[in-house]
Amino acid sequence: xxxxxxxxxxxxxxxxxxxxxxxxxxxxxxxxxxxxxxxxxxxxxxxxxxxxxxxxxxxxxxxxxxxxxxxxxxxxxxxxxxxxxxxxxxxxxxxxxxxxxxxxxxxxxxxxxxxxxxxxxxxxxxxxxxxxxxxxxxxxxxxxxxxxxxxxxxxxxxxxxxxxxxxxxxxxxxxxxxxxxxxxxxxxxxxxxxxxxxxxxxxxxxxxxxxxxxxxxxxxxxxxxxxxxxxxxxxxxxxxxxxxxxxxxxxxxxxxxxxxxxxxxxxxxxxxxxxxxxxxxxxxxxxxxxxxxxxxxxxxxxxxxxxxxxxxxxxxxxxxxxxxxxxxxxxxxxxxxxxxxxxxxxxxxxxxxxxxxxxxxxxxxxxxxxxxxxxxxxxxxxxxxxxxxxxxxxxxxxxxxxxxxxxxxxxxxxxxxxxxxxxxxxxxxxxxxxxxxxxxxxxxxxxxxxxxxxxxxxxxxxxxxxxxxxxxxxxxxxxxxxxxxxxxxxxxxxxxxxxxxxxxxxxxxxxxxxx
Length: 515
Fold this sequence. Notes:
16 helices, about 30% helix, alpha+beta, Dipeptide-binding Protein, domain 3
């Protein structure tokens, strides 16, 4: 199985100074109106599920569409959404029965044909910026009657229920959405818990409860607004001035620290899934030599990066698999222990490699935020302080960065990662498969055998053993070094409830907020 994944979305939206009342309706100010107002620096690339594969777009779409399966608040095991029940009938066949009486927000019935249409459309359009790659293992979708949907897979895949719970599985109205192209404009027709009442690109999105919704989500508010900001400084001003009730994604570590002591505000943190890796291209010197990669892994001090660069808003990560995910093993801590320049020197000496080793390290401030420069500098200082490396740090704009990281142009580079669903396979497969989605130049047949083993089994013990073996082998070869995992942070005004639940690792849960 091969899937291409999304990386952490850029946060560059042009801010237009509008009042909340510009969204229409009897909402009043953020502090006194009926709607819960959430400020963010995220962006929306598309309102069509087939064309959206970024966090900001998924925040909107996940709110107004249903899926066959979904992740419940705080949960990592998918549960039925539009479905009444789903199960594997054999390792390559996943069968679902839909709930009765489902309708779209325009009154059209939602049937098995709409589900089949949605998946056929997603795969058929295969939009460059869409999530169709998540369905690479889907052979065909079959509809039987109004309520039976059968997914036929190319290869056994125990993670397919999780794939269905991502926004690659959003169900669209076959009477509204064109079969072979994206829907023009801002019209959104779904069957989710809210409808998109008003939308102004780069300004705001206004949601109201969908009275015809039938599903497991319990709404704590009947209306909320997302207001978009250009950067963290304007978002900070908005939350301090009471223009928004909640501010979420993305603040700098300095902003978070300063807001912790602000009157009338509370900093709420939850487990995040954003990760940062140091990636090597094993086809490019000097990191084509495993001892060089191992020596770097032996020197990097994750605790220092978390404290000195991010003020404790991230936590050290010792596996490609995220903290808190079943099946994770701290493979890099087990292999390398604490940072130790003497051990690193021995690794290089035993391999006959002269020091200092010259290394180029690339990062992109336009995509990974202002702290990424400090992070790159910190890594350079750590490596050079060992006396074993001479590091040349270079920055590139995001558009060029995406091309270069796939074209064997970088020996080493920074990469942010935001998994699609909470399963270890989603943190491993995209990088270690025979056709990885970015340039690592690394191939290991044993890892690929273990990937096939864990993906093809529904037995958790079998999967855990294969996943542990993958993580240990990857730490030994060190083509990718995990550095940190972020915490989710929201700033909320006194009186706002539910922010702790809204900070869900899978997606921000707007329906948990109330005031």
